[in-house]
Input
Amino acid sequence: MGYQINQDKMNAILTELSKKYKIYGPRRYVGDGTFAHVDTIRYGEVTTLDDIEFKEKSNYSFKEVLLPISETLFYFTENEMKEADAPHSGAIVFLRSCDLHGLKRMDTIYLKNGAVDTYYKRLRDNTKFILMGCEDSFENCFCVSMGTNQSDDYDAYLKIDGQNVLIDSHWDLLDTALAEMPEIQVIPDAVSQNKTVVEIPEAIPQSVIDSPFWEDYANRCIACGRCNFVCPTCTCFTMQDIFYTDNGKAGERRRVWASCHVDGYTDMAGGHAFRDNKGQRMRFKVMHKINDYKKRFGTQMCIGCGRCDDVCPEYISFSNCINKLNTLVKEEN
Amino acid sequence: MLDLNTKKIKKNAYRVTKVRGETASRIRVPGGLLTADILPIIQNIAETYGNGRIHLTTRQGFEIPGIRYEDMDAVNALLQPIIDKLDINQEIPGKGYTAAGTRNVSACIGSNVCPFANYNTTDFAKKMEKEIFPNDLHFKVAFTGCANDCIKARMQDFGIIGMTEPQYEKERCVNCQACVKACKKKSVDALTVENYRIVRNTEKCVGCGECVINCPTRAWTRSTEKYYRLVIMGRTGKRNPRLAEDFLVWTTEDVIIKIINNTYKFVENYIDRSAPGGKEHIGYIIDRAGFSEFKKWALDGVDLGDKTIVKGPVYWSGLHYD
Amino acid sequence: MTDINPYIPFLSEIKEVIKHTDIEYTFRMTYSGNVNPGQFFEVSLPKFGEAPISVSGIGKDTVDLTIRRVGKVTDEIFENYVGDTLFLRGPYGNGFDIQNYLDKEILLVAGGTGLSPVKGLVDYFSANPKDTKGFTLLVGFKSPKDILFKNDFAKWEDNLNVIMTVDTPDDGYCGKCGMVTQYIPDIPIKNIENAVGIVVGPPMMMKCTIAELIKIGFKEENLWISQERKMCCGIGKCGHCKIDDTYVCLDGPVFNYTKGKFLRD
Output
């Protein structure tokens, strides 16, 4: 159902909702960027619409709401383990269409690939998603190529329209709160083209996987992992056991985000590593995003948000890599 | 027949050169940053009254050689739009620069461009210029964005080195150790890992910001407050060239401005009036008056705050030729 | 189903510790669920972390975990004795399915600790020799002091063709020497078209052995390998063991060579 409401009233509804849900959206963190006087836009708790950055692409995705960067799994004493409490019992997340498609990728890994992940599920089950439209494409976006520029799989769509807010609700709780408001038709803003267009090769022959093509990245990539950390579809983690210094017998096991570009990702106990070469790490990531995932689960993994291209300090372009790969595959065939 | 007061000429930012009858005009550019529209004005002066050449000075100004002494008034008139555009304090409009002792306040490119800079060096340099110029006392002040010290702040009477106090949000840390590696290889090795989290040795940390720059998850960010290392009394010269030593660490903009203003009073009081040209470097004055006396004057009425570390007594090394 | 938290381990008691070498012990642990040879458990030590350890033997209500001391977790495991308990998660992975090898000629080639994940198979066919048309165990160790499962070999030799070799002999060793690959051509195989080869060991050893088996006529679809990778979660989430579209922890570690040969790390 579509509604029009003024911002004050919508903020009052958010305040009401915040009693049950933690509300997360892309926020501007002034001066928190890599360099002096540079801001970061990343996910954080919001209380009013003014807290949400609608005009720019967030540098980091929403994934940290469902998969915290560092998440305690359980606490232990010598012979006992106690599951950690969830960071929230319910959440509302403001996000764009590409990220909403990213959510499905997270669901696939955490709910379907092997056992159900208790920690993900308990957050996911009680989270509502509010779509933010895109009137224009941002730099490096290639959502249209990936088919993620549109989504109707939201609990609500919300658009700031001057002093008003336009809402399309798929959520009964919100419908109830908006019951008195004038009903209008609201269609989410979505871009229909991006400046960046990628063409993904249909089938990538083994010769391309083994090709010297990847060597170019071996001395360009610095293995910082930024591309993975900003990606809404990168969901790898590593476990850490820590003990409390004041009580050596107690501690916790937690998981933290991991990156297939960062050293140590494939290291086994005893020291053997499988991808020392950074070009091979690039191959591993690219193949995962545009080939391997699809082979296993039927859809492409990459959602075309372009954050990896936005963030790479060495100006390695993932989207251009796909296109170069496509050319190479055509030449091979 | 030239009949000149060379002392007045020098104070007007002209040089008495080796070429009889010719002077050179020095243009100050605080912070070393100017808009491109100023360049044609400089070009015009050089081509109209100079010999068509322009020298780039070590302090980030321009020097236009080959000007006839009798053209100084005309050149001063042409300098006015430059002085206005760069917002230089001026006692008598139209008469050019009204002092030269306090040198152009220079700065590295800073946070407008450089990824390492911890603050906007240009802005601070301009602010300092407004505070201390014009003044005939010989003061050299320079601003550098980080501990790399590209402007050579340690060769100045006052060098201001940018610092940030790294803020660590442990819940955003993935223990990739990019910060640890950067600090070890590019800075002072102040970071260690304990229980998969980073521990910063606050004694060692120089506030360079490498951890912040290299952090891929924003676990490390910059402090809202800008901090500075104030290094003092570096100098070149014949008798005892030396690098500036730390005076204050983790200090603030207000404190630095106050201290430099205070130092003018100290110099007024202690300068050797019989020195050649009435010109004596501050460092030699401090050598004579004693560091503790300088410190008393410099910190007069200064609220240092809790964070600032005051070094002292400060001893300088360097080369001694006397 | 979702009530079970797959990350929380269970307690298992150490029933027996069998010392093979200074740095390789087998811990016989209580466990009564279903388990296949070649599957693995995460041995989970609070404060130290987890280590994936393959099942090297299956008894009634026990599993054997043969552990090599190579890191902080395994070092800590070695501090435990009979009667102590360890936390475990698992079993994970597919393991070896006996059905794939029944009534066939089998050549099992193992290198060093690679014997652990296949030892359950050797035990099975040693106990049920009529289930195979001929079983050769070809196993190589670095040196005599690295030999694992010494006490089992005598038993295996009763029913199976066992060839053990070491890379570098020491004084007093009088067995076979050299790489496993040099013994492959002499192994009597009646019907190579249908013979099954199982290869587990260090990456180079596996590569050379497989090349040799194919050279003497083994069919690729009759070759099986077990891949060792970094494991963290064991349940298809953490991503560390992924190769191409394969999660070693879910789809492996045992692969038919027709799939295994395409895996690119």
Notes: The radius of gyration of chain B is 22 Å.
